[in-house]
Design brief:
alpha+beta, six-stranded mixed beta sheet, single chain, about 450 residues
């Protein structure tokens, strides 16, 4: 444990291309190290360091480090962490005064307490470099970003349901008649089904099991998070939870089936043209109502983009918004939200809809980030182009630069009050945005009147 407010914390490079340099961790609580020009600490003098190499989190009286998908990973003392051949975004390791970190070709010592002498390392630099060549990733001493509620659930046997007589391999799930396999899904298999007690159309998401245990655990954390949050939320514009369970040792989640596809498909029908304002605005109001409901529950979505906004066909021909993909949602500590859903590392998401703070602080959870993302979606709906101008730069650099396209230039006929509201929501500084989606929605409705 360390008192972050009273003790100076720094990394001192003792060997390698960065030898003699000292990196003081002031402010924070998150610090990114790498050769990227806008990382908190630029390590470009070491060509073996990755663009975004590692992150140190200094909060809750702890110092923790995590690899950010670097090419070669890290050595913390003699334990390997991360690297692209491993699922590196799944675990932190705690740091203490005197610990040794090897990143690229540079060796760092952790110093806590300013002038407090560093203890002698248990191993010499040559031995640590040698350990980096031979030491495989060890799972002990690593803690999951979101610990499983009961780790024994993974170790204990579970009841396996029979495969049934389905020649096409469709699962047999109690309470549902599974009718078809759906395309897509990524780390999940998707099925269409009929809920037998009500006749309602259902979509069943079933987690894929990977050979890489760490990768499966990471996906399982996200899947469980999505399931638990879906149970909590009861709003007409948030995807509706039906049930969850296990089939063939694999967790599944059953939710309402949404007929109209994703918003990204609607936007993509006329690339570069944009939707009519009075076509887009009702859908946007529904999106803000869904996000406002999450914020009222002290939850932040953290991954709002057109692919996660589903459209259901209403009787009479209208469209209803259904906000989905709740697996990265977290409690907001800034609003006293509790600690049952602590932040997961945000794995970049879709940069076109992310505010800058979500790329510089991967675990920060504030409602203002959702405000920006929702406004960025509406900008895309209205203009047919993304809010960031990525011309001549990679997408992450474009986000961090805060270079936004001008809405009045692209849609000069829009009412000035609407433009003002969206400009507030899209401010690069989260402190200048609406504090939550409820206030954003209130001002947007007023601008429409």
């Amino acid at each position: 444990m360390v008192d972050n407010d009273s003790q100076a914390i720094s990394l001192v490079c003792t060997h390698g291309p960065l030898q003699g340099k000292k990196f003081e961790l002031v402010g924070g609580p998150v610090f990114i190290f790498g050769r990227y020009a806008k990382a908190h600490f630029n390590l470009s003098d070491d060509s073996s360091i990755s663009h975004l190499h590692f992150l140190i989190d200094v909060s809750d009286n702890r110092i923790r480090i995590i690899d950010l998908g670097s090419t070669n990973g890290l050595m913390v003392n003699t334990r390997r962490l991360g690297g692209r051949d491993r699922d590196s975004l799944n675990a932190f390791v705690s740091l203490r005064h005197g610990d040794v970190i090897l990143a690229g070709s540079s060796l760092f010592r952790v110093s806590v307490g300013g002038e407090t002498p560093l203890p002698s390392p248990e191993l010499g630099a040559a031995e640590i470099f040698a350990a980096a060549e031979r030491e495989p990733l060890r799972q002990d001493n690593l803690t999951a970003v979101v610990p499983l509620k009961d780790q024994s659930e993974l170790d204990s046997p579970v009841r396996r349901e029979p495969m049934g007589e389905f020649a096409d391999g469709l699962p047999k799930i109690e309470g549902y008649t599974v009718t078809a396999r759906l395309p897509g899904g990524g780390d999940r298999e998707l099925f269409r089904a009929i809920k037998e007690d009500s006749g309602a159309a259902a979509a069943i998401k079933m987690l894929r099991i990977f050979r890489n245990k760490a990768k499966t655990l990471r996906r399982l954390d996200i899947f469980r998070r999505e399931t638990e949050i879906a149970k909590l939320l009861n709003h007409p514009n948030v995807i509706r939870y039906f049930s969850d369970g296990l089939w063939d040792d694999r967790p599944y989640l059953a939710v309402e089936y949404v007929e109209g596809g994703a918003l990204e498909n609607l936007i993509g029908r006329n690339p570069g043209a944009g939707m009519g304002f009075y076509e887009a605005a009702p859908l946007f109001v529904q999106l803000l109502e869904a996000v406002a409901a999450m914020h009222e529950a002290r939850l932040c979505h953290r991954n709002i983009n057109p692919g996660n906004i589903l459209l259901d066909r209403r009787r009479g021909g209208g469209l209803a918004v259904k906000l989905s993909s709740l697996g990265l949602a977290s409690r907001s500590p800034d609003t006293g939200g509790g600690d049952d859903f602590p932040p997961l590392i945000h794995e970049w998401g879709m940069p076109a809809y992310l505010p800058p703070e979500q790329l510089t602080d991967l675990i920060r959870t504030i409602p203002q980030s959702d405000v920006f993302s929702a406004a960025a979606v509406f900008f895309h709906m209205l203009t047919g182009v993304e809010v960031y101008d990525f011309s001549g730069r990679d997408r992450k650099s474009g986000v961090l630069s805060g270079s936004l396209r001008s809405l009045p230039e692209l849609r000069p006929e829009l009412d000035s009050e609407v433009v003002k509201v969206l400009s507030t929501a899209l401010d690069p500084d989260p402190n200048q945005r609406y504090p939550d989606a409820g206030e954003f929605l209130s001002d947007f409705r007023q601008a429409l009147s």
